[in-house]
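Name: HTH-type transcriptional repressor AcnR
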Amino acid sequence: MTSPRRTGRRPGSTATRQEIVEAARAEFAAHGFRGATLRRIAARAEVDPALVHHYFGDKDGLFAATVTLPDEALGRVLAALGDGVDCLGERLTRTFLGLFEAPATRDQMLIVVRSALTHDVARDRLRDVVEGTLLAGLAGEIPEPERRLRIELAMTQVVGLVLARYVLVVAPLCDLPLDDAVALVAPAVQRHLTGPLPAR
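Structure predicted for HTH-type transcriptional repressor AcnR:
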């Protein structure tokens, strides 16, 4: 005699935690921290909402588990820094935009950028890229005391383009081919990195 087939949401398992994290990444990428709900995340993961609370406590705990930059992202940024400052603006712009174009990294990058304005954890992750990866990676290329200022000025161009193209989805920026978007913004990024600064 066979047992009756169980219905309803799946119980917890060794894979459940990761499935919830993946569902949360999709939800946070689409709606940001404030717009995401634990109930929708549970529905995406096909689990009972109580399991989300069991594994992560609350939305802040779940968010902290999902708002991580992909290892691939940091590796690609470091690779872009490795060929000197000539054409660095083009390489950085193309690398950052590419992270939002690639399916493997898009959701995690969108989570960080969407939520950086409203959530300390996301803001810290984004700051780590600017103050950690870029400052350290360009230590031998751009001298102090200008290095930090130049990198922050350059990133205003890149992050602004990312917000307009991938978060706000502003036309015509969001419709431009990647090469065209890079060609329009990279010269300004390069100028901030290596061009003359106003006397202070």
